[in-house]
Amino acid sequence: MAAGAPDKDAEDPTVGAQTVSQQLGELKALFQREIATTTAEYRVPREVVDRLLVTVGLAGIEPAAIPGAFDELVRRFAAMRDALQQQRNDDPEIATLKQQASDALAAADLDTAERLLSAIRARQRTLSERRRRAADEAHADLVAALEDEAATCARQADAALLRLGVAEALGFYRDGIAVLADASTEIRWRYALAAADALGEIGDRAGRNDALLGCLGLHELALRAADRDRVPLDWAKIQNNLGVALWTLGARESGTARLEEAVAAYRAALEEGTRDRVPLDWAMTQNNLGSALWTLGARESGTARLEEAVAAYRAALEEWTRDRVPLQWATTQNNLGNALATLGERESGTARLEEAVAAYRAALEERTRDRVPLGWAMTQNNLGSALWTLGARGSGTARLEEAVAAYRAALGELTRRRVPLQWATTQNNLGVALQRLGQRESGTTRLEEAVAAYRAALEERTRDRVPLDWAMTQNNLGAALQTLGARESGTARLEEAVAAYRAALEEWTRDRVPLQWATTQNARRPGRRAPYARGSGERDGASGGGGRRLPRGA
Fold it and tell me: How far is CA 477 from CA 328, 447, 455, 465, in A?
């Protein structure tokens, strides 16, 4: 090829221009009327339409579709022009860019218009991000203010609880949750969980069932709000704490529905709070599951639930070791002792009872009076119950005297003012031990002391609060009065005994607690020896000192 010769493949620009011009001329000739109508309708100057057609062209469109395509092209151009003019121009830089884009459109310079639109968008993105950051900061400030107000609601609830104003406190907690309506779901359910735990402690320590009912409602609210898939371990903690409230309330009620719900809640918690994931929390829930199973088992004639409770406690001890968490280890030793003692009462031998005594004594090595006075007292009470059962099966009085000493030691910390229901439990148990000693002595001093202990217990163990425990103490009071009446010439004590037995049978029904019902029916027959009720209320199953509720955010 000769130097300077034109490339055979290169296009001649004049040829392309002629082709476009020819196409434009042909369009104008064919669709002159449609072009005129469309440009007038959309208020687009003819020279702009001409330039637009040159820029875009209508190549590749079927001839019959050209009028419609042309109409759409001009309509879209007009809409774009109007939109640019109507958009707000808060920012001077954007206003300038929009004017330039409008000018480019007016000149049918689409390349320039598109470049300017990209510049407008970049500037708007910068401003949007700036506003978003400002909005986030403003929202964070709002949420912080809402949390402060909700915290004050919680302090108002605290003040109400100092007067045991449970309904008032619950109202303040609900106010706090309402205040947090514009906060995140997580903030709301964590607040509800904290409120539930506060009410649960009052319900547990002060014997207030209304507080426990409020606690249940708040736990259920938290459970509905917490997303199991997103926060599985928190969900498990809520299930555990819900189980604690259900168990505490169920232990005071005559039915077993709450206890069954507690077992279900603990088992649900264990699905997410596994041993591999959170070994110490897993151990806590195993311990709590054991307590619910023990309480259920104590009300049933069989031993399956009790054996399950022993298994749960022993599982907990695999992680709650003495070296790692001495107080939790002691808690579970105490609770294991409860389950073993209840099983031992249903067996003819004493092996389980001796194991229970060993478990209680082990617990007391770490659960000392100085470290955890209430936990120490609870274990003293439980040790007294196991010693009483062993003493009742023997002929001497040494074990019974040990039991009385253990109960009296417990009452040094389990005071009526501090823990009214636990105080009543220990008064009942002291009465049982004194009564057995009184039966083995010729005098009536121990029996009179037993009657006084039972009557003291009934001042807090009311029928409304703890119907089954109230019935138990009424039964035991009847037994002591019956023994006293048998040693006296009059019938006043015996009449009182009959009244106490009949009161017990109002709650100890055949359908509800068949074994206890039969015990009391048997005692009412002439010549029968006074019975002792050994139900779940005899021991304090609370795992105080080791904790039952999982801490929030742990």
Answer: 36, 10, 8, 18
For residue 345, give the nearest of 375, 408, 387, 403 by alpha carbon: 387
CA distances in angstroms from 216 to 4, 144, 170, 240, 259, listed in the order given: 95, 27, 11, 12, 13
Q: How far apart are CA 359 and CA 399, in angstroms?
A: 17
DSSP 8-state assignment for residue 529: P
- Among 348, 384, 359, 271, which residue's Cα sits nearest to residue 309? 359
Q: What is the pTM (predicted TM-score) of this model?
A: 0.66
Radius of gyration of the chain from its Cα atoms, rounded to whole angstroms: 41
Domain boundaries, the chain: 18-127, 227-538
Going by pLDDT thresholds of 50, 70 and 90, the confidence category of residue 320 is very high
Are the C-beta atoms of residues 415 and 524 closer than 8 Å to each other? no
The superfamily CATH assigns to domain 227-538 is: Tetratricopeptide repeat domain (1.25.40.10)
Helices 32-42 and 66-86 meet at what angle, rounded to 10?
20
Helices (runs of H) and strands (runs of E) counted in the chain: 22, 0
Backbone angles phi, psi at 53, to 5 degrees: -65, -35
96-152 pLDDT tens trace: 888 888 888 878 788 898 899 899 889 888 988 988 899 889 889 999 999 999 999
CB-based contacts of 521, cutoff 8 Å, min separation 6 = 505
Q: Given this model, what pLDDT does residue 534 score? A: 37
Contact status, residue 421 vs residue 467, Cβ threshold 8 Å: no
Q: What's the rounded Cα separation, in Å, for the pair 451 and 457?
A: 10
Q: In terms of DSSP H, where are the helices of 87-109?
A: 92-106
